[in-house]
Every structure is written in C-alpha cells, then in structure tokens.
Amino acid sequence: MSERIGIYPGTFDPITLGHADIIRRGSKLVDKLIIGVTTNPSKNPMFSTEERLAMVEREVASLGLDNVEVVGFNALLVKFARRQGANVIIRGLRAVADFEYEYQMAGMNQQLDDEIETVFLMADVSLQPIASKLVKEIALFGGDITPFVSEAVRQDVNAKVEERGQLGDY
Question: Which of 132, 136, 150, 154 does the annotation list as catalytic?
Fold first, then answer.
C-alpha cells in the first residue's frame, strides 16, 4: 500500500489551540501530514505569510510529531495536494456554519480531483468556539486570548496588536 499523505490547509492567522488539536489528531490518520499555510486575500491577515509559517512551524515542533511538516502555498488546494502527493485533505469543523462551507468546498475539490478524499474532524468540544478571527478581535480590543492560543502565540499576537495599536477600551 502506498504512503497516505494528508494536507491540512489554512491561513492559521494565528494558529489556535483548535488548529493544534486537529493537527495532533489528523497526524494519527496519515503517514505524513503537511500543514499547508496559504494566503487568502479576503481574510486580511494580521501576520505575513512568513510570520505565519514560522509560527506554525514553532507550534508543530512543540507538539513533537515526527510525521508533520509545514509548507507554504499560494495555489488551488487540489493542485497543491497533487504536487505534494497527497490523497487526503483534512478539515476541522466547529459548527454547522463551518459544515455548509466545507461541504461545498469538498464537493468542488472532488469535481477537480476525485482521487483526493476530504476528511472532516470535529473540533474538541472545549475548543469549538475558537476561531482565529475572534482571537484577533479579542486581542485588538484588549481582551485576554490565553484560553485560545499557546503562550508563544499569545505573545506574537499581543506584540502585533501593540505594533498596530489597540482598537478601544469601551
């Protein structure tokens, strides 16, 4: 049997404890898991691609998983998956709203390449409310993001907020 290679794509802006949970669990399902850090202009990222790659690499290293690597990409996901030799796309789901979007994306990806399967992992119940967008909003308004990200990521986000300026105190 050939090696099972999975892709877990995302912007990871910033990487959260929810992402780390999916990485940890997804790495058990495949021989090799590639974390694909991508650009998404519609998301207006807080961190540059280089900063996000470094952040994800650091967080993955802290998980101690030998079968996980981090790769940046700026291409159609299916094309990236093919280039990496992947046959599985791993996606995390938090809520019904996620499912609707992810279901549509999985269908489109299957139309583009029916040799690549999409596997959905439900986020751990304690991590389901965590979203990078909300983490950034909380930080920008001076809130504590400690429950949602690692200590190192909290420092990265707070430094970026300090650099850009907080949005408000009321």
Answer: 132
